[in-house]
User: What shape does this take?
Amino acid sequence: MTPPPTFRDGYATVHGYRFFWTSCGDPGPSGTIVTLHGGPGGTYDYLLSLADMAAHGYRVIFYDQLGCGKSDRPRDDADYTVDRDVADLEEFCRVLGIERMHLLGSSYGGMLAIAYALAHRSRLRTMTIASGLASVPLTVREMYRLTRELPPPLPAFLDRHEARGEFQHPEYLAAVGEFYRRHLCRLSPWPPEVTYTLEHGLSDKYRIMNGPNEFTITGRIHDYDATPRLGEIRIPTLITVGRYDEVTPTVAEAIHRGIPGSELELFPESSHTAFWEERERYMARLARFLAAHPEP
Assistant: This one.
């Protein structure tokens, strides 16, 4: 019987701050998968199903980004930017001795992966965009469309309380909860790891960079759009998306059109967390993609 993969964890000092990380599996010829969690401001915990990839021969690394989870908070909130997260990822890899990697970014982490690929593509063997985005304005338009499709009176609750800035009103939170059940994770109950991230991920970073919730993006990233530069990415790229995803298939298709030679996979029973909602199928698809692009 094959022994279970080994988990290790620790802290890496990145630009003077402590970043908490954990890994599953051992380094080997298949290579290392580095995961990027969403938010911005979440925690890596909701990605832990991806530790399944250790059974395919990969070392899988998870870490909490600056200002998130068990990692340090910055001394200045001005450090909550995409550029800072890109620079931190590059330094994190240097500290851990990761020369080449398979990069997988989920949600905001997918946007961060694209930004990293545009700045440091030579370190990447492959990139996987898991329900990620390149254009915040497009994503916001699509999320607004999904809110209009909620059953009455929930759209009216959203409009009324957003106009008043009442983001903690019970009616508003009821509408948010229904949106999340439809478009964030459709499992019932949610995996504990997903619940943990939702309960511990609404940090200052989330508020400053994103906004009050998943579909109300009023923070620093609200105008971010890397779509015009997607054609510069020339590494093997897999884009995954759920049929009911809050970051909709329309967003995924725009990234697919923009990155030459990219692959697009739709998970028909999933929303934003296909790696939980269709876990076995997701890992099999990811394993096929990564195996098709070994280190030359």
